[in-house]
Amino acid sequence: MFPHSVDEVIRALEAHRYITERGLATAIFLALRLNRPLFLEGEPGVGKTEVAKVLADLLETELIRLQCYEGLDVHSAVYEWDYARQILQIRMLEASGERDEGRIRQQIFSPDFLIKRPLLQALEAKNGRPPVLLIDELDRADEEFEAFLLELLSDWQITIPEIGTVRAEQPPVVVITSNRTREIHDALKRRCLYFWIDYPSFEKEIQIVRTRIPEAPERLTRQIVAFVQELRRLDLYKLPGVAETLDWTAALLALDRTELDPAVTDETLGVLLKYQDDVLKVRGEIAQDLLAKALMRAETAPGNV
Amino acid sequence: MSGHLMHHIVRFGRTLRAAGVPITPSQIVAFVRALEWIPLENRELFYHTARCTLVCRREDLETFDRVFEWFWRNPLMGGQLPPGLLGTAPGPIRRRENRPRPAEAGHRPAPEPRSENPEAPPMILTDRAMTYSPLEILRRKQFERFSEEEIQLARQLMARLRWQIHERETRRLRPGPKGEQMDLRRTAQRGLRHYGEWVRLLWRTRKRKPRPLVVLCDISGSMERYARMLLHFLHALSHTRRHVETFVFGTRLTRITRCLHHRDLDEALREVSRTVMDWSGGTRIGECLHVFNRDWGRRVLGRGAVVMIISDGWDRGDVKLLGQEMERLQKSCYRLIWLNPLLGIPGYQPLTRGMQAALPYIDDFLPVHNLVSLEQLAAHLERLPSRRSARRSGLARPVSSVEPE
Questions:
Q1: How far is B255 from chain A (nearest CA, A)?
Q2: DSSP letter (8 states) at residue B306
Q3: Given this model, what pLDDT does residue B102 score?
Q4: Domain of B78, in residue numbers
Q5: Does residue A173 share a domain with residue A133?
Q6: In chain B, which residues have their Cβ closer than 8 Å to the Cβ of A180?
Q7: How far is residue B87's CA from residue A46's CA, in Å, rounded to a whole number?
Q8: What is residue B197's three-state secondary structure?
């Protein structure tokens, strides 16, 4: 389906189990309408990557993912020749008496011997639908790759010297994510629709847990979310994201818990906090304090079904 | 679209720029194109559309929200910003307007050393206007004893120091004469000349890049005597290399990287003094490092950064916290260097509580009190070892006291 209004985007995302806010839905809607890349920033675990997956589902198209890392180059991002097969082919041609260099070259540098990497794949629409291209954690790649991407995002074409220029008939839907371990250059961000994904509100997060883990008891869900929300107010190195909330819910379900208590909270803190310093700081008194507040909030706050 | 709205949008863009959000015409065009797709009477959608097309940095979101609220309440009034909104975030455009021309500033900006010859010695400190010995005296004189003229002179000398920080091997490969990975593409290409026979193997080698540098400079009361020269030093440093992040701290941490981007030193210093709120006050190193580790560590310490802390170690804050934060800082950077101006004084012993707490986590403890010490620092940075020094494990710290019963 192709959404025709922002509300339709929100509904479609919800139907695909992704709860979102209006701002992000607007950005997604415009990205689809204007054919502009979507640039998502935010703390780890707030569901940036998920947006691309859900979008691919929603548009019923293929998701092509490019995970960035330092030193990512054309060979692994765009295309590579299959050298082993090329050599075999040369030997076979030789055996058949072929001696003409031009003809050999033409044969072995044909699309058959081309290994397509994500960016080249993304230029080809399958079943008439352009794919969703996820460029994940762009901040991990280096400036050289960023510069290359800038060029690609404006022209949607790639030149392979031996074959020629490949151009996208329909540009893919592009989602770029960054964790901000490095600032991405403004020139690139300006070509995109920018959205900063924040931690969700209490009500939103309850909705997320409900949609993702429907088997969790309502009472437990409310307690978990209230506790995590309290935890996010602390001065920690790494605050728990939505991903951690979901992990924790799953963990508590696996332990057959129906509600939070001090003992189980202390024992499972490691699911929420990923730095030993943070765990040591919270475990014990602070955790109990937070728990008391969270249990209160879970009972009183709105957001009930 | 009605001409009125168009007009307001252009003015809105101008207002945002005045408030320090850098916006390009192409972003305005994108915004206008986006408006074709949303119902204009819906104010919330209008807001989100403007936000995702016009802003591309998180820092600017807050300014944007305030300007948006103010401007669209009555767009006819727009144009003159209320004082609270002006320059909340120093953007490049506002800076360009405010910067005095070199002629107005009263003196020429210090000449830039542009010797690209890698064979040249790292530092060129010859000044033909001076004979050898006065220069030598100045180089060894302590910063706090500098007269006004000497400061000006030292400033020029400092601008000529060359900072070549040790390079790290990146994971990007490029063709090279020898290396650990074969360059299949080039080897196969070349092989075609010989009917597919790989006559010569070609290699790829790792590309090298300078390490990012992060400087944290103490500007509390006890450091006041050195502050001026150190700021000159920081300015010179951020204009000789590309990746330098600069922070100052006393009772709170302030990032001054953007202030120092002004080429003109005096304008840069004015910008710094406008931004920094805690000049010559107390020192809470631990708390400031905590803020740095929490808010900035992940953003500026990647890619093998070298961190320099400039402080005399007089700390009135929580010493235990200082130790913990030093440990975290050391673990997250490539090398942690502490520059102490007192170390230049003969007989100085780092006995203050703060210094004692920090010492175990410092990789290099160096003086910074005269020009010679800066030259030595430059030489040191150039020759950093290609491996990290051994790090203490967090488990070495007694944890039992923190754990509950």
A1: 15
A2: E
A3: 38
A4: 3-98
A5: yes
A6: 58, 298-299
A7: 31
A8: coil
